[in-house]
Amino acid sequence: MPKKAIRFATIFPKVEDVHLMKEIGLIPWGLSRFYGCESTIALLPDCAYPSLKELSGLQASYIPAVAGSNYLRSFLWVVTHARKLDAIHLFYQYRHTRMCILAFLALNPKGLVYVHFDRKETEFNDYAVQYSSHPIYGAFERWFFKTFVYSKRNRSRILWGVQNTIALDNIKGHYPFDQVAYMPDGYFQPADGCAWKLEEKENIILTVGRLGFEQKRTDVLVKGFAQFAQTNQDYKLVLVGPMEQEFKVFLQDFLDKNPQLVSRIQVVGPVYDRETLYGYYAKAKIFCLPSDYESFGIAAAEAQAHGCVLVCTQYPAAYDLTNHEQYGRLIPFGDWQKLAQVLQELTSNPAQLKKLAPEVARYAQEHFSYKALLKPLYQWMEQKRSEDDSCIYKQRRTACDS
């Protein structure tokens, strides 16, 4: 008899269309596409989700439009659907998450819970269970959650996913994280794969993201490129993404003072069509992410899948993305002079850049495609189901023998 497909559902109370093409939508989609799960995502009835059409196989279930916050409404969705599911997918260490765990495992004792952390931090304290600071209510919370939510049995039904290996090492062995897995973000892979050709790559340094947003430090990239451009006349910088007004002013002033760069810095603006966006990755040789912090850096993984060598700051997930600089370079935060130096070093050896491109794409395919990164989660769910079936079989044998 063929195995029944795992019935898997993702619940994120504030889900918007933009989240569907991130881990919130791509984890259930990937489990459906690559592992045959019956995947569902709980959506808000008053939001539009045009990206859903790209996620073939992912079913939508709309949260009832009842009075109350999205947290309450999504909690009620979990209560309503608990017995129809094998596993649910939640996020962070919110009280909402804990209450959903409590309700789901109470209503479905054989259910499984996957909790995904999307955090930039690496210290254990940043993942620890947060309680109220009120002395009485905080003490009650500690007792309640330890006794009911994170009981020993419940902890055996929960898998926690973290996005970088530094955090993985820090969180292991701490309560209530009995079962932890490395679960980076991945990139969306169209049905025909990420198409790019080595011979079609151009002398382009690319960045994709919210240009000028405080954490992204696009100003560092512009300054670094300007210094690099003094000795390199072949490369241009391409900026893709929506632009903050403050950065518009900065960039215009910068170009007024450096008119020789006007033809070498191209501002594309936001690109919403995925095929067009992937076309920019396919043409670039180097992808830069000079952020002050990132939880992961999905754009970096997308760029790698198209053969771009990475230059990132030293945030935790960047070590995994570059495999500790085997497939890219890391620079200190805010150091545009070091960025210029690294760009000069990379571009001064075109043969090495050409050699790295297919290796980088292969590394991304093996580590950040959803088929690859979801394998541990799927295997964990299957293992738990097998253990449950074995336990039921033993109980029946015991009953028959008696």
TrEMBL record:
GO terms for molecular function: glycosyltransferase activity. CDD domains: GT4_PimA-like (cd03801). Pfam families: Glycos_transf_1. InterPro entries: Glyco_trans_1 (IPR001296), Glycosyltransferase_grp1 (IPR050194). Residues 197-357 form the Glycosyl transferase family domain. This is Glycosyltransferase family 4 protein. It comes from Candidatus Allofournierella pullistercoris.
